[in-house]
Amino acid sequence: MKIEHIAMYVNDLEGAKRFFEKYFNATSNSGYHNKNTDFRSYFLSFEDGARLEIMQKPGMDDSEKSPFRTGFIHLAVSVGSRENVDSLTEKLRDDGYEVISGPRTTGDGYYESCVLGFEGNQIEITV
């Protein structure tokens, strides 16, 4: 069994799409738009076959994203090496994203950093 894809609602659909294309080499489909509900989405594909669906529609609840809440908390992306973790973390920092931890080796052996990406969503960058 494998997870087919993960989906998340975003306020700025085009901005989220650009974020994943720019920093994580995602490739997007041409998008979907339901004219009846004004629901819009893109499927973003990554090099290893993983997929992320980003979605937007009118009237979404946009509650504060507390880092210690139940439910999904971060998206972890493997970039292949410690050097790639370091360089991508610095690129995101230089572009104005807040680095909230790392790069560091965690107690359970991961080399990672965590960045508040688009719309305050936590993105973990790991080997």
Describe this protein with a few key phrases:
127 residues, alpha+beta, 2,3-Dihydroxybiphenyl 1,2-Dioxygenase, domain 1, 2 domains, five-stranded mixed beta sheet, four-stranded mixed beta sheet, 2 helices, 9 strands, 36% strand, globular
Description of the molecule:
This protein folds into two domains: 1-59, 2,3-Dihydroxybiphenyl 1,2-Dioxygenase, domain 1, CATH 3.10.180.10; 72-127, Roll (2,3-Dihydroxybiphenyl 1,2-Dioxygenase, domain 1). Helices cover 20% and strands 36% of the residues. It is built from two helices and nine strands; from the N terminus they run βαβββββαβββ. The protein has helices at 13-24, 82-94, and strands at residues 6-9, 27-28, 32-34, 39-45, 51-56, 74-78, 98-105, 111-116, 122-126. Strands 1, 2, 3, 4 and 5 form a five-stranded mixed sheet that branches. It has a four-stranded mixed sheet with strand order 6-9-8-7, with helices on one face. β7 (98-105) and β8 form a beta hairpin.
Brief sketch in words of this structure:
The protein is of the alpha+beta class and 127 residues long.
What is this structure's SSE topology?
Blueprint lengths: L5 E4 L3 H12 L2 E2 L3 E3 L4 E7 L5 E6 L17 E5 L3 H13 L3 E8 L5 E6 L5 E5 L1
Parallel strand pairs: 1-5, 6-9
Antiparallel strand pairs: 2-4, 3-4, 4-5, 7-8, 8-9
The CATH level-2 architecture of the largest domain is identified as Roll
Examine the coordinates and then state which fold CATH places here, giving the name of the CATH topology of the largest domain.
2,3-Dihydroxybiphenyl 1,2-Dioxygenase, domain 1
Name of the top-level CATH class of the largest domain: Alpha Beta
Order of helices and strands: EHEEEEEHEEE
SSE-based structural type: alpha+beta
Q: Indicate the proportion of strand residues.
A: 35-45%
The CATH H-level superfamily of the largest domain is 2,3-Dihydroxybiphenyl 1,2-Dioxygenase, domain 1
* Count of helical stretches: 2
> How many strands, which pairing sense, and closed or not: the largest β-sheet?
5 strands, mixed
Radius of gyration over C-alpha positions, nearest whole angstrom = 15 Å
Task: Note poorly predicted spans.
Answer: none
Q: Return the domain count.
A: 2
Name the overall outline: globular
